[in-house]
Amino acid sequence: MAVSYKKLWKLLIDKDMKKKDLSEKAKISNYTIRKLMRGDNVTTDVLVKICTALECTMDDIMEIVPKEE
After folding, report:
1. Could you read off the pLDDT of 9-54 as tens digits, one per residue?
2. Which of 13, 19, 54, 66 lies deepest, with the highest CB count within 10 Å?
3. Domains along the chain with CATH numbers
4. How many other C-beta atoms are found inside a 10 Å radius of the C-beta of residue 19?
5. Long-range pairs for 4-13 at CB < 8 Å and ≥24 separation?
6. What pLDDT shows up at residue 69?
7. What was the pLDDT predicted at 2?
8. Averaged over 57-63, what is the pLDDT?
9. Would you say 66 and 2 are in contact if contact means Cβ atoms under 8 Å apart?
10. pTM (2 decimals)?
11. How many CB atoms lie within 10 A of CB 47?
12. In angstroms, rounded to a whole number, what is the distance separating the alpha carbons of residues 50 and 11?
């Protein structure tokens, strides 16, 4: 299984926010944003910061998808 953050990017579009805005509001680094863009693993703390900043739940920003083989 893998994690997809497509919901996060759609939510940012819906809120008319840029990734830089998210980085500043959630107090996460640009490196972490790049990890999210690649679908890499991030800590639960990072996800909580994003959810707090965007006033949403984890279901709103990520989903588990079957891993491509």
Report:
1. 999 999 999 999 999 999 999 999 999 999 899 999 999 999 999 9
2. 54
3. 2-65 (1.10.260.40)
4. 15
5. 4/39, 4/62, 4/63, 4/64, 4/65, 5/36, 5/37, 5/39, 5/61, 5/62, 6/63, 7/60, 7/61, 7/62, 7/63, 8/36, 8/50, 8/61, 8/62, 11/54, 11/56, 11/60, 11/61
6. 61
7. 87
8. 95
9. yes
10. 0.89
11. 20
12. 11
User: Tokens representing 26?
Assistant: 């959630």
- Structural tokens at position 31: 């490196």
d(CA 28, CA 17): 15
Q: Which amino acid would we find at residue 34?
A: R
The sign of the dihedral angle between the CA atoms of 34, 18, 29, 7 is: negative
